[in-house]
Amino acid sequence: MKLLLTTSNAMRVGSSIRRSPTTKSNTEFIESLRANFAEHSTAHEGHVNGDSNSKRASYQTWTRRKGDTLEIPALDFANSALAEERDQYDITVKLFYLPGASREKRAAQTREALDLVLKELHVSSIDLLIVSFPGIYFDEEEDCPDKINTRGPVEAEPEPLEGQLEAWKTLETFYTEGLVRKLGIAEFGKDRLEQHLQKVQIPPSVDQINLRDCCSVPKDLMALAKSKTVELLVHNDSSNILPRGTTRELLGCGEGGAGVLADASKSGDKRKSLHGEESQNGDTSAGLRGEVQPQWVVKYTAVVRNRGVVENKGYFACAELTG
């Protein structure tokens, strides 16, 4: 079963979960998911003197199953998420391929991710699509040798060049179809960028890099980018934006969880229902059972051009439930 998660517009929630310029974006992403799940899963029974008594509704009441996909919460594209005409916005989309995800499904997953954003914003194209590959970090020693390494443990082996190029072909298709005006990559140092430019038909217009404690862009990367008209942009996104354990915590039955996934530690055989009967995808009233593997996350941002104001920002994410 495929689990499709969404934050809706993260700008409408309280400022307490919006990230500061120095905070990794997965904090904003995870807390926005949590807030959106809580909003849909809590059934308010009444308000007395400003106090409210509430309980969490069954996940089946606020999610929607379409074929082999469970929308969490149920998607609603009836109204546009943008207040003005399309030409008033710069729309940037960043797609994160996650560690452990299936490469064979990437072409379909990439199109699905972009299609969700187009439907959410009621637009026919975006301005910039950036792709982030698993295991690729700009702050490796060869990119910034004088920098103290602060990225933490390595979460995945670097994506092989063949995988990068295969995924890039899908992005090039979007470009030729007019769905995307510019393409971009993330965390490419000089060597990776040079190799990439030699192999692709449509070169990236943007390279997003995370400098962290590195005070300046390496000169060789700056020279290459300038010679190839590649714009270097700084970001502070987390490469592994949706770890496997975090996904289960978000969707589980524990405190702060959405109650979509059953508590495997208390449910016995995860392949059987509470009554001992096997069920497809472990679907029971107590929650879904199985192993969760995050596949991808897509982040979209719509900025009003003449004001430089972020009007809409949100995320979609996909995970596979097996077993």
From TrEMBL:
Residue span of region Disordered: 262-288
Limits of the NADP-dependent oxidoreductase domain: 76-232
UniProt-listed SUPFAM superfamilies: NAD(P)-linked oxidoreductase
Matching InterPro entries: Gclm (IPR032963), NAD(P)_OxRdtase_dom_sf (IPR036812), NADP_OxRdtase_dom (IPR023210)
Cellular component GO terms held in the UniProt record: glutamate-cysteine ligase complex
Compositional bias per record (Basic and acidic residues), positions renumbered to this chain: 266-278
Pathway participation: Sulfur metabolism; glutathione biosynthesis; glutathione from L-cysteine and L-glutamate: step 1/2
GO terms, molecular function: enzyme regulator activity; glutamate-cysteine ligase catalytic subunit binding; oxidoreductase activity
Pfam annotation, one family: Aldo_ket_red
Record-stated family: Belongs to the aldo/keto reductase family. Glutamate--cysteine ligase light chain subfamily.
Subunit structure: Heterodimer of a catalytic heavy chain and a regulatory light chain.
Protein name: GCS light chain
Species name: Lecanosticta acicola
